[in-house]
Design goal:
4-stranded mixed sheet; Immunoglobulin-like; mainly beta; 4-stranded antiparallel sheet; 234 residues; 2 domains; 18 strands
């Protein structure tokens, strides 16, 4: 268990059959944590509708107990009280989920801080169907034996919280969503992640289901490239 805060780099070296692979893992150790009351799933705040009054309360723990809260990103017209951690106002965002970060700084020790992503789903009246999107980007290739992660989102509509399925991923890859394991992932979005083990082209299908059991599906091409081994020295 870590005993001090800060950013840590750990180097791993594996040697097999005359080949050596080096890999570094970076992670942060924080002295604070930030949560919200009444979440529907990790990081997913209660739903709302356009033009409605909205309130959410964030709570920091750890450190001295004296906190200053801050928000970054588009908050949908809401304002965060830096002393109480209360986010309030009238929603001005369009339908579908939007995300932002909320953090806290220890008032007695400014070196202690933490921030986390949260999302709010603006439900249409009447409800609008969700849409699975890769935000107009090409799905990049993965490589056998190399960690890979790809983010897919849900936009335009639906009612949070969302659940995801992807039954035909290449071997070695899986999906995760609404999880503290990927703190940079927008709550409600899904991340394809892992280390692929088999090369070749694949067509993957992602399906999202919202709280009303409404589903949306999209397919994408995903190619896993064979790993190029280094040329032996002579």
């Amino acid at each position: 268990m870590p005993t001090s805060t800060g950013f840590v780099n750990v180097n791993f070296t594996v040697t097999e059959g005359g080949e050596t692979v080096n890999r570094s893992v970076n992670f942060g150790v924080y002295g604070l944590n930030v949560t919200a009351t009444g979440t529907l799933a990790p990081g997913v705040l209660p739903n709302t509708t356009q033009g409605s009054a909205y309130t959410a309360t964030f709570v920091a723990t750890g450190g001295s107990g004296q906190y200053e809260y801050f928000a970054s990103g588009f908050t949908g017209g809401l304002n965060l009280d830096e002393m109480t951690g209360v986010l309030s106002g009238t929603i001005s965002a369009g339908t579908g989920p939007f995300s932002f970060s909320v953090g806290a700084v220890d008032g007695a020790n400014p070196e202690l801080f933490y921030q986390k992503r949260f999302s709010i789903d603006v439900v249409g009246v009447p409800a609008v169907l969700p849409s699975v999107t890769n935000f107009g980007n090409l799905i990049r290739d993965c490589t056998v034996g190399v960690p890979c992660d790809i983010t897919i989102g849900v936009t335009a509509g639906g009612t949070a919280p969302f659940q995801w399925e992807a039954p035909d991923l290449p071997p070695g890859l899986s999906i995760r969503w609404d999880t503290s394991e990927a703190t940079s992932l927008t709550p409600g979005y899904v991340q394809i992640w892992g280390t692929p083990t088999t090369a070749g082209p694949k067509t993957i299908t992602l399906t999202v289901k919202d709280a009303l059991n409404v589903t949306a599906t999209n397919t994408y091409p995903l190619n896993v490239s064979a790993r190029r081994l280094p040329t032996p020295r002579r």
